[in-house]
UniProtKB/TrEMBL annotation, chain A:
<comment type="similarity">
    <text>Belongs to the binding-protein-dependent transport system permease family.</text>
</comment>
<dbReference type="GO" id="GO:0055085">
    <property type="term" value="P:transmembrane transport"/>
</dbReference>
<feature type="transmembrane region" description="Helical">
    <location>
        <begin position="41"/>
        <end position="59"/>
    </location>
</feature>
<feature type="transmembrane region" description="Helical">
    <location>
        <begin position="140"/>
        <end position="160"/>
    </location>
</feature>
<keyword id="KW-1133">Transmembrane helix</keyword>
<feature type="domain" description="ABC transmembrane type-1">
    <location>
        <begin position="102"/>
        <end position="291"/>
    </location>
</feature>
<feature type="transmembrane region" description="Helical">
    <location>
        <begin position="267"/>
        <end position="291"/>
    </location>
</feature>
<keyword id="KW-0472">Membrane</keyword>
<dbReference type="InterPro" id="IPR000515">
    <property type="entry name" value="MetI-like"/>
</dbReference>
UniProtKB/TrEMBL annotation, chain B:
<keyword id="KW-1133">Transmembrane helix</keyword>
<feature type="region of interest" description="Disordered">
    <location>
        <begin position="1"/>
        <end position="21"/>
    </location>
</feature>
<dbReference type="GO" id="GO:0005886">
    <property type="term" value="C:plasma membrane"/>
</dbReference>
<feature type="transmembrane region" description="Helical">
    <location>
        <begin position="105"/>
        <end position="126"/>
    </location>
</feature>
<feature type="transmembrane region" description="Helical">
    <location>
        <begin position="138"/>
        <end position="159"/>
    </location>
</feature>
<dbReference type="InterPro" id="IPR051393">
    <property type="entry name" value="ABC_transporter_permease"/>
</dbReference>
<comment type="similarity">
    <text>Belongs to the binding-protein-dependent transport system permease family.</text>
</comment>
<feature type="domain" description="ABC transmembrane type-1">
    <location>
        <begin position="101"/>
        <end position="316"/>
    </location>
</feature>
<keyword id="KW-1003">Cell membrane</keyword>
Length: 306, 355
């Protein structure tokens, strides 16, 4: 049992059940800060500089991506976009199968997200709320495997995919990430406090089957955590590079591997490369403006649970 | 819930008949019996997809890496002779392997130390009574949504030696062009910058959350006792976020030691520079497997890296629990009821999601 507590000490112990709205996990502190005094000009000045640093690389790609390579050779970098953007977009479309890559990335990330969230919620619910033999031991196993870099198993995985004849197919990218230990752990931590045991018992007394209880009690309660897990799973599947690079070829790429091909020639046309970078960032930028709050609360909730 | 023991013939339960309500095993209808199996089997059914899939696609390949490393295994020719530990001997005697390990560590240190320092400062700045709080938090997180490949492409352009933005800019002040790609240290700094760009804000938000869980009254009473802002930051904030800090370090280690995209794309024609000056271990693994087609040696590299990461993780774990333990007693004026919870630290959000 000591192993359980020690392992758990390294990771968050419980979901934040006290705040019903997961978006505002720490309301009690009244907006953070040491005191209620409003911070001064200096604070906003620093934050403004930070904002510039964070935005500038993206803005720079827009500037270069809408000009041509000559923009790069001037001593003082141009600050405003030029008029070459659509020509460069056309060049990107000619050099890589952009739409196919976009479609592949959407399918891969979508399927992985559905699978990870479904199986994590099922297993997380079982670990959080059901009693069965070996539960603690198996949970310790899940937590331990979170620290294991399973990505290092790529060589046997590649041999396996080759034997199955899956190399070049997007299935080969999907299969290795269908479940994650982190997902199970995350859902378990959330569900353990968010569903009262009485609710499950009441559903059982009313004659609901186990799966019925899961569906009608656990899933509705788990929805906020499922949303956050979806967001992060989608992001990580979308950004994955090494494994798709190994198993897919240039004709059937993901957005990331296609993007890397733009730079693979010995002569690199940076305005086209950076146009590609801009195009590939747009989907996530949209996601960021739609779900940025959830992303932030997901990161922050994960950080201090309990 | 005592009904979970299987219904046995009455004779078998004779020694302790009073323990159980007698109706438990006699009058079960078909439906109730089904329900019982439902209760018993469902948990296993729910966790089995995870364990089966994880075993097949996560654990098995990792363990099988060791098996492959014991063979002479060619990418095209397939499995060859069993050669014991010859691959390990060869890799451990290979200066390129050690070179890659040194590069990985150097890039890791150059990225994690400044990154953490900046993240703490940014978190402290955000941990104030700000106007437009969400806006500033989003602005800090923005780089996280730029994928590592896009980040690498953008910064590879900015660090270009001839026409790069940075060298052009420095040239205006009479500074000679810095060989960002051809020399070891500048190339490590360039690659570390890419990592820092993407992860600093993310870590700042994790640390911000930890800072916000420090009860306000500790700060207030310290201020009443005359402690200034910096003093309070060093004596209250830093000790309270230590567990989270260590957790961030652990996840950064696991991710940082497997860095691939950035060095791979920094110079697309070589695997880590002309003189391997920024070839990381995973990049060397990749070269060994898919250019030299030697799966045996590549597996040996993978397995050695696995051992190194686990060893570092284990040391981190020991340090975490030790500091977490002393932390609880040393906390200045912490409420007893809350101290226990403070050992809860960052999640593996990042770990689960980076790769």
């Amino acid at each position: 049992m000591t192993a359980t507590t020690e392992v758990a000490a390294a990771v968050p112990l419980a979901a934040p059940p006290t705040s019903p709205d997961p978006r505002k996990p720490r309301l009690r502190r009244g907006g953070g800060g040491t005191f209620d005094r409003r911070p001064g000009f200096l604070t906003y000045g620093i934050l403004g500089v930070l904002l510039l640093i964070n935005v500038y690389p993206l803005w720079w790609s827009v500037v270069v991506g809408s000009r041509n390579n000559q923009a790069l050779s001037s001593d003082w970098p141009p600050l405003l976009p030029g008029g070459n953007f659509w020509i460069n977009v056309g060049e990107v479309m000619d050099s890589i199968p952009f739409w196919k890559a976009l479609g592949n990335s959407l399918i891969i990330s979508g399927v992985i997200t559905v699978s990870v969230v479904l199986f994590s919620t099922l297993a997380g619910y079982a670990f959080a709320k059901l009693k069965f033999k070996g539960r603690n031991g198996l949970m310790v196993f899940v937590i331990t495997t979170m620290a294991i870099p399973t990505q290092l198993g790529i060589i046997p995985l590649f041999i396996l995919m080759k034997q199955w004849g899956w190399t070049g197919e997007i299935g080969a990218v999907i299969v290795p990430t269908l479940v994650t230990a982190f997902g199970v752990f995350f859902m378990r931590q959330y569900l353990v406090d968010v569903i009262p045991d009485e609710l499950i018992e009441a559903a059982r007394v009313d004659g609901a089957s186990m799966i019925g209880t899961f569906w009608h009690v656990a899933v509705p309660a788990a929805r906020p955590a499922m949303a956050i897990l979806s967001l992060f799973t989608f992001m990580s599947a979308w950004t994955d590079f090494l494994w798709p690079l190994l198993v897919l070829d240039a004709t059937n790429p993901t957005l990331q591997t296609a993007l890397s091909q733009l730079q693979s020639a010995r002569y690199v046309d940076f305005s086209i490369v950076l146009t590609g970078a801009v195009l590939s960032t747009l989907p996530l930028l949209i996601l960021f403006f739609v779900a940025g709050r959830q992303l932030i609360s997901g990161i922050m909730q994960g950080a201090v649970k309990g | 819930m005592t009904t979970t023991t299987t219904p046995a013939p009455p004779a078998a339960t004779a020694p302790q008949p009073e323990r159980k309500p007698p109706l438990a095993f006699t009058g079960l209808t078909r439906r109730q019996r089904l329900g019982k199996w439902d209760v018993k089997l469902s948990p296993y059914l729910y966790i089995s997809p995870f364990f089966i899939l994880f075993g097949l696609i996560g654990l098995f390949p990792l363990l099988y890496t060791f098996v492959v490393s014991l063979y002479d295994w060619h990418l095209l020719k397939g499995q060859g002779d069993f050669i014991g530990f010859d691959n390990f001997v060869a890799v451990l005697g290979d200066r390129f392997f050690w070179n890659s390990l040194g590069n990985t560590l150097s890039i890791f240190l150059l990225s994690s130390i400044p990154q953490l320092a900046c993240a703490i400062v940014i978190a402290a700045i955000l941990d104030q009574h700000l106007r437009a709080k969400t806006f500033w938090r989003m602005s800090v997180l923005l780089p996280y949504i730029v994928t590592p490949v896009a980040v690498s492409l953008i910064f590879t352009n900015m660090f270009n030696e001839q026409y790069g933005l940075i060298n052009n800019f420095l040239g205006n002040f009479g500074i000679d062009a810095i060989p960002w790609k051809t020399e070891t240290l500048p190339s490590h700094i360039a690659i570390a910058t890419m990592v820092n760009f993407r992860w600093t804000g993310y870590n700042a938000l994790i640390l911000l959350a930890a800072m916000q869980s420090v009860p306000r009254d500790i700060h207030e009473s310290a201020a009443l006792d005359g402690a200034g802002a910096i003093r309070r930051f060093l004596s209250i904030t830093i000790p309270s976020i230590k567990p989270t800090l260590i957790f961030v370090i652990i996840t950064a280690t696991i991710g940082g030691l497997q860095i691939f995209s950035e060095p791979r794309l920094f110079d697309p024609v070589t695997a880590g520079g002309n003189a391997r000056q920024f070839q990381t271990t995973v990049l060397y693994l990749w070269e060994m497997a898919f250019f030299r087609l030697d799966f045996g040696k590549a597996s040996a590299i993978a397995f050695l890296l696995f051992l190194i990461i686990m060893a570092i993780g284990f040391v981190n774990f020991l340090v975490t629990t030790r500091i977490g333990g002393s932390e609880r007693t040393a906390k200045p004026g912490g409420k007893i009821g809350r101290t226990g919870t403070r050992t809860g630290t960052g999640t593996g959000t990042r770990k689960g999601l980076t790769k």
